Amino acid sequence: MRTSRRSGSRLFGTKATYGGFAAPPSAAAAAAKGEGRIARFIGLDLAWSTRNPSGGAVLDENGRVLEARADLGDDADVVAFVRAHLAETAVLGIDMPTIVPNETGMRPCERELARDFRTYHAAPHPSNRQRFPDGGRARRMLDVLAADGVRERLDLAPRAAGRHAFEVFPHPSLVRLFALPAIFRYKKKARPWPGVLAEWARYRAALAGLAGADPPLVLGPAVPAVAKTRGYKRFDDLLDAVTCAYVASFLWRWGCAPPHTRVYGDLVHGYIAIPDRPVVGDEAIRGNGSYE
Questions:
Q1: What is the C-alpha separation between 159 and 256, in angstroms, rounded?
Q2: Which end of the chain has the smaller Cβ count within 10 Å, N or C?
Q3: Higher-confidence residue: 157 or 2?
Q4: The pLDDT value given to residue 38
Q5: pLDDT tens digit sequence for 98-108
Q6: Is 45 exposed, middle or buried (0-12, 13-18, 19+ CB in 10 A)?
Q7: Angle at the Cα of 279 (from 276 to 285), degrees rounded to 5?
Q8: Please, which pLDDT band fits residue 27 given cuts at 50, 70 and 90?
Q9: Which residues, 6+ apart, have CB-to-CB distance to 29 below 8 Å?
Q10: Is-contact 31 42, C-beta < 8 A?
Q11: Residue 72 or 283, more confident
């Protein structure tokens, strides 16, 4: 969620330790909880402000959406959501800056990505310390999740074991995955509802078309078939969270190296990881990007 943005049911009962976050489970408890899980891919479409809800989605090793929601609240709520789904092997795809050292302007990775994707209308907003004085929500949560063994790494090999996290960005990822001439225009902004809902449907259809891809994505009942104008932002966030989870699975399946993946930037100045090739070639999915 690259613009400024609770939970129906709490996933934990206390925030007494770890600086207000629930303590991670013991190694034995984590092992027992993860028994039978091969891998989990967790997507987070984070609101830049805790005043707004965030999206979260989880895929299993077969690409099935186990959970998708758009009502996650504060940092502790999101961390609890992640911890509830961590397996021995897990990959997080986070749509929010994770490393922001620059005081002003754009990060180098954002400038480089904007150069490549501006014509697709997929350029990122600038991230800096004026906007994120403490590094931002994603940084805070990753610092907490380090206690669970979650680490950012840009040299990920295909199917690598462990718990990994990446900053991802849905718009350019979708452009590459589906060879789009322009982004899906499903963001409401000032656009009329008929076009917005049609683009949301096209976005969902594209994701549904990944059932036979490598890696696969199987939406199932967790993802609504139709978006509504009432509460539309959550339908928007839901698909973006699923996309983040799918990108996480793509990075795990193929690794972080060309020709499959492009990593803009580095772990010092900030980075964004995106798939760098199509997984399908359906003209009906690509469409003409004509909605304004």
A1: 11
A2: C
A3: 157
A4: 85
A5: 999 999 999 99
A6: buried
A7: 110
A8: very low
A9: none
A10: no
A11: 72
- Phi, psi angle pair for 263, to nearest 5°: -110, 115
* Token pair in block for residue 24: 């991670």
Rounded mean pLDDT, 116-131? 97
With b for 16 or more beta-carbon neighbours within 10 A and e for fewer, the 78-113 pattern comes to: bbbbbbebbbbbbbbbbbbbbbbebeeebbbbbeeb
pTM of the model: 0.87
CA neighbor of 198 nearest in space, from 182, 183, 185: 185
pLDDT band at 8 (very low <50, low <70, confident <90, very high): very low
d(CA 199, CA 227): 10
The mean pLDDT value of the chain amounts to 87
CA distance 265 to 217: 28
Q: Quote the tokens at residue 157.
A: 């090999």
Note the pLDDT tens digit of each residue in 64-77. 999 999 999 999 99
Nearest to 91 by CA among 25, 158, 33, 137: 158
| Assigned token pair, 172 | 């350019």
Do 234 and 70 form a contact (C-beta atoms < 8 A)?
Answer: yes
